Amino acid sequence: MIFARVRLDRELWIYIAGAFLVFVMCFFAMYIKEAEKSGSWRYVINNQDEFFYWVTADGVTETPQSDANPFYFEEKGIQLALPHVTANLFGYAAKFFNLPVLFFFPLWHIGMPFLLWGSMFICFVKIWKYPVFNSAAAALFFIAITFYLKGLSPLIAVRFSHPGDGLWLLVIWLSLITHLDRCSWTRVAWLWGIAFAAFWLQPMYVIPGCLVTAAEGLWYLKKRDFSRSSKSFSVLGAVCLAGVLLYIQMKIFPPVSSLLLKESMRFDKTASYGEIIPSFLLYGAVIFSVLFPKMRNKESLTPLDRLTISLFTIEPLIITLSCFLNFAIILTHRYYFLLLEMACMFGLVFQNAPGFFQSIKSKYYEKFVLSLFFLLQMLTLWRPELTPFHHGMMTSSNFLGMHDNILLISSIFPSSLLVAWMFFRFPVLTSALKNRMILMCGIIVLTGFGFFTFSSGPDELSRKSLFDGAYRWLDRNTPPDSVILTASPKANGRYDYLPLYTHQKIYRGALSVYLDRVAQDYRDMFMAALFLGILDEITMDGITDMPGKLRRFRLDYVLIERASPFLNNIEKSLNGHIQEVYRENSCLIWKVLA
Amino acid sequence: MTQRNIASMALLCILMLFLYPRIGRAGEPLQNFPPAAFSQEMNQANLLDALLKNPKNEDLYYQVISLFFDQKMYQEVILVAAKAKAESVLSSRILMTLSKALFLKGQYSDCLTILGYLDFTLSGGA
After folding, report:
1. Does B24 contact A488 at a Cβ distance shorter than 8 Å?
2. Which residues make Cβ contacts (< 8 Å) with residue A255, sequence separation at least 6?
3. Is-above-0.95 flag for pTM?
4. Could you tell me if the ipTM is greater than 0.90?
5. CB contact set of A315 (below 8 Å; sequence gap of 6+)
6. Which of A145, A227, A392, A517 is the most buried (most CB within 10 A)?
7. Please, which residues 498-527 of chain A have a Cβ atom closer than 8 Å to chain B?
8. Among residues A335, A390, A315, A270, which one has the least CA distance to residue B19?
C-alpha cells in the first residue's frame, strides 16, 4: 500500500474490480485482431519500440547479461550505464521463473493501464477528494482520450515499457506534493522513494515531478511555511541522490555502455528560435486562465491551479533549452506528459467554467464568447494540420508523427469549454448524465474502441508468423548464440522474433542500438549486396574473397521465405558456401559453410 | 467587470487564433508528404502540384525521385518512394534501379528500405 492509513472501502473495491475486467476486455479487443493477422498469439507485438524493449528484457536473461545490444553476437555482454529498468526487471523475473519474457506480455498489457487508472482513481478520491464515481469515470476517460489524439499519445497506455512504467508514480508524486498539508513525514518518505524510483525508471519522468515540487517549495517559502517548504525540497534531494548514484555507477563500472547517455547529453541545438515565442504565449494563456478568475474573486490558488501552472512550464522550458542544447530526446518524448497535462486542462475547465459562465450577465456577450470558441474549434477541425485527432478517427494515416503537446491541448480546449457551457446552461444534460450506468458504459465503449482501433500503421504485413516452425527448429537443433540472417527485406529487421523465441542472435537488426556504427554499415552493405545478388562481385572493407566476407562477423544460418523474390539472388551470391538444413512449406534454412 | 472578463477572453481567443498556424508548423507530423525540403529548396512547384494532382502517375514519381537523387537528398527519395508504395504505382523495375543506385552511392540502409518495398511489390504483400 502506497499511502499510510489509506483504506479502501467496499465501493472502491467494486470500481477497482470493474476496471480490471475492462482492461482485460481491452487487451483482447486490441490483440485478438493482431493474432488473427499473424495467425498466432505468439506474434502479436504491434509496435517496433515495444518489440525492442521485449528483446532487451530477453537480453537480461542471457549469461552474461546483454541489455545494451541484445541482438548481436559481437556485442554480447555489454550493459547500459542507465538500464531500461522495467525491461530489465521483466528479464530478471523471466530468468528467475525460467520463463520466456513474452509470458509476461498479457500481464503488462492488462496490468499497466490498470495500474495507471488505479493510481489516478485512488489519488482523485483519497487526495484530491473528488467523488468516487467522477474519479473512476475521469481516470478512464483520460486514458481513453489518448487513443484518439494525433502523434505518439496512443502509445501511452499501450507500450512496453515507457511511459506506462513511470506515469502511475508521477500521478502519485504530483498528487501528494500538491497536498503537503495532508502529508506527514512518513508520506514524504514515500515521496522520496517515488522520486528515486522515477529517476531510475527513466530520468525524463522527474522533469514534471521536479518542476512541480520546486514550485510547491517556493510557494510555501513565499508563505513562510518552512515546514512544508523543507518537505518539498527534501524530495528534490532524493532526485539528486539518484543522479549521484548513477554518476558513481558510471565511474565505478566504466566498461558499461553509456552510449545513450552520451547521445542525450551531446550539445547541439534541436529546436528553432521561432518556436519559443508561441510556446511562451500559450503558456501565458494558461497562466491567464488560471490566475484571472482567482484575482477577480480574490481567492487563493488551489492545488490544481498551482499544479497546472508548474506542469505547463515544461513546454516553453524544453523548447527554449532545445534552442541551445541537444534536447531532442526530451523534445520528442513530451508526449509522456500529455496525459497529465490533459487531466489538468480538463480539471481547470470544469473548476473555473461554472464561475466564468455565471459571471456573464448579458446573453449577447455570452453568444459572442461562445461563437469565438466555436469558430476556433471549427478552425482546428477544418485544417488537417491543426486537428487534434487522427484523420477520420478510425485510420492510422498520421500515426506516430511527432506532435506538439501545446497544439494538441489548445486544439481541444475550445471544445471542452463548449461542453462545460452546455452542461451549465442546459441542466437537462446534467440530469441525463445522472444515469451513471449509461455514462460509464459510454466511457468504457470509448476506451475499448480506442484499444480496438490501435494500429501501428504500415508494418503489419511484416508481422506474419511465417517462420514459426523455423524458430522452433533453430532453437532445438542449433547451438546457443548461433547467428541467423533473416533474409526478408520487407521485415527489414523490425519484427524479427528470432531472439525472443530462440537462444540465437541475429545478423542485422534495424532496431538495435548501434554500439559500433562501422560494423552496422558493414552489416547493411552485406545484406543489401546479398539481396541484389552482387555480394560475390564487390569488395567489402578491403575483403574480396567470399569466405572472408562471411567471417567478418559471425554468420551461421540464413533463414528465407521460399516465396521470396530474392531467393535466386541470395542462392547465386552464396553458391558453394551454403547447405540446406531445413525446409518447410513457407521457408527454408541454409547452414553457412565458411 | 463582466465586460472586461469577456473582452479579455476575446483577446485570448484572438491570440490563440493568431498562434495556431505558427504552432501548427512546430507540431507538424514527421511523416508528412511531400517533404518540406522539396518545395523550399528545389522550388519545383509545378512538378509537385502535378504529382499531388496525379498521385497514380508513375512517371511523375520517377521524375521527382530522380531530382532528389541528383541532389543527394536520400531521405526525400525514401519518402517519395514510400508515398509511391502507398499508392501502389512504382513498378518493380524502377524500385530495383533505385535500390541499385542507392547501393552505388553507399546508402546501404536506404537501399534496404527500397528493397523492402520491392519485396512487398513482388510478393504481393504476402
Report:
1. no
2. A78
3. no
4. no
5. A279, A282, A283, A334, A405, A406
6. A145
7. 510, 521, 524-525, 527
8. A315
